Amino acid sequence: MAWLIATTVRRVLGVPVGWFRSLVVALIMVLSTQVVMDAVIHQIAGTSGVLSEVSIPAALVLIIIALLWIFGLGTALLMVLEMVLPTGTLPNPFLWTAGLRKSWSRNRRYRQVVATFIRHGLGANLRGFGRRGESGARDERSWGSTATALRRALEDSGITFVKLGQNLSARSDLLPAPFVRELSRLQSDVAAEPWESIRQALGTSLGCDPLEVFSSVEETPLAAASVAQVHRARLRDGTEVVLKVQRPGAVEEVMRDSDIVVRICRWLQNNTTWGRSLRILELGRGFTRSLEEELDYTVEAANMQDMAAAVSDQNITVPTVYPEFSSTRLLVMDYLPGASVGRAQPQMLALSPATRRRLAQDLTNSVMRQIMDDGIFHADLHPGNVMLLGQGEDTRLGLLDFGAVGRLDPRSQQQLVMIFAAIDRNDTRLLNDSLIELLGRPEDLDERRLEREVGELLVRYRGGMRGGSASRLFGSLMGLILGHGFEVPKAVAAAMRSLGGMEGTLGQIDPDLELVTAAREIGADLLKNRFTPGSLKESATTALLEALPIVSQLPRRVNRIADDLQGGRLSINMRLLAHENDRRYVTWLFQQVVVSILAGFCVLGGIVLLVFGEGGPAMTSYMSWYTAMGYIVLFAGFVLSLRTVALVMQLPEAAGARERDRR
């Protein structure tokens, strides 16, 4: 009975009231029914206690009136609870009880992470980070110790936080240089997992003993990262391969700590100025989503095959993957004999300046063509993911770690080419139009202000700058975009981060290469390639195919228009409220008006019947039939008034969302 009453109350109010409070109020109604019914029966019987003095219809009407007003007062109580404590303010007791153990474990882990940060002296420093004092130089020097403490705290907090530090190390557009330098150490300085643990993980992924698939596996890892480590091995046919083995428990730890990262980012955004300016909560959520994708090595294997096809005509090596031996937690690929750029400084110094310049240009050219021509690009080009292969003049570069790979559609590729061509030509209007075409026009865009700020940006970077120019350029461009209300697609943001993060790697290969200048030149070359006779013919053919259905139907449509015009039948139909949000708002407003009018009439009619219904046909010795009808009509007005209040409290968007859910 309580469930039936709770369902009815929720339908009457028309708002998503919580089930727990609805059932509690309904139970109160059920329990109060006996008391009220005893009072009604006593009133019907009078002093004699004989029920036959009142007719059966009259007794039934009195009982119905009592039950209706029990329902009405209970609905009012639920409405008051909803006004004081809206649904969702307090946790659902059933869900809270079911998730108590999980919540306790998560909160304990959260306290451990916070204690780790505080132990390293990052309590007040994080709140004050980003505020410059009177002496900017003194603040810059103080950041060095804070950056070291942050790096150590991330290392002690586990895999997820180490990966977070790695991602932040590529954001020189957001962080000062001391933080970038210190967090870059997280790319390699990670303790290796014991071999026995890795051997068990290998056996689980392969479904058999590793020596049944490989003739040998080296126990000492080539590299140890936060999520996985790499071991050399040899297939049964003698092929040298490397095994990228996910650390045991990495997925479980990441899933547990991802929520903590979001909670910390939310606290920083709510309590620090720099956190709000960086939109750190959005960054944290994006990081956790991308990290979950990186933990699935089948995705990385597919990315490697796509990247190998994209760079097949370039002087860049991508290892061959062996999907028959790979799985979600194991990746088997060719061994690339060499060292990462981050660890190959002695070999790098032994190369001639011309060779280093060629390598830097090869990497820049490859990444630019990946983004603007192939549509698939490596999104995490830190020094640990770029290999130095070969010796002397034959040295070339190889790429590793394809967990973070971005993809761009042809239209976005075209607009990015136009953006770099505009930067090269110093064309403010072209850059302004390309940004709008790439990102879409936001509402209330001040296009004149956007064009003015774009022009200032072009003037600032027109001549090129050494040391971090790309990071500052893309950081300034991203700030300009966000400041004007543009919504940046994930792939476009990844492309900008890839170009900005590549600058640190290029700086170790050839410090004299100016990335902004090189990117401008390559972008201009790509634009020229789009206007060759062959490409123009292909573009014209594509446009013609798209227009062919319209052109073929055009004569018939023109003939119909001419006939309608000649016969006086030509008309124009305009659809008002074509947008779904407009229709939803009008519907919501119309519901409010109708319910309010009905509530007002019912309340007014009930009062009139109660006041002037004494002279009507007698139902009992103290009540006429008109008075009884007044109580019923007044009840209807009372309930409709409650529904009116509920509709006023509810936003049209929420009503529309609930309606879509029902559909």
Written description of the protein model:
The structure is a single chain. The chain is of the alpha+beta class and 663 residues long. The protein is built from 26 helices and 11 strands. It has helices at residues 2-13, 19-45, 56-84, 93-98, 100-119, 123-128, 136-157, 159-169, 177-184, 195-206, 250-271, 273-278, 280-294, 297-310, 345-350, 353-374, 410-425, 428-439, 447-461, 469-483, 490-509, 515-529, 533-566, 580-612, 625-649, 652-662, and strands at residues 214-217, 223-224, 228-235, 240-246, 316-317, 330-334, 338-340, 376-378, 386-389, 396-399, 405-407. Helix 5 (100-119) crosses helix 7 and helix 5 (100-119) crosses helix 11. The chain is extended and about 115 Å long. It starts with a helix and ends with a helix.
Helix-strand layout with pairing:
Layout: H1 2-13, H2 19-45, H3 56-84, H4 93-98, H5 100-119, H6 123-128, H7 136-157, H8 159-169, H9 177-184, H10 195-206, E1 214-217, E2 223-224, E3 228-235, E4 240-246, H11 250-271, H12 273-278, H13 280-294, H14 297-310, E5 316-317, E6 330-334, E7 338-340, H15 345-350, H16 353-374, E8 376-378, E9 386-389, E10 396-399, E11 405-407, H17 410-425, H18 428-439, H19 447-461, H20 469-483, H21 490-509, H22 515-529, H23 533-566, H24 580-612, H25 625-649, H26 652-662
Parallel strand pairs: 5-10
Antiparallel strand pairs: 1-3, 2-3, 3-4, 4-6, 7-9, 8-11, 9-10
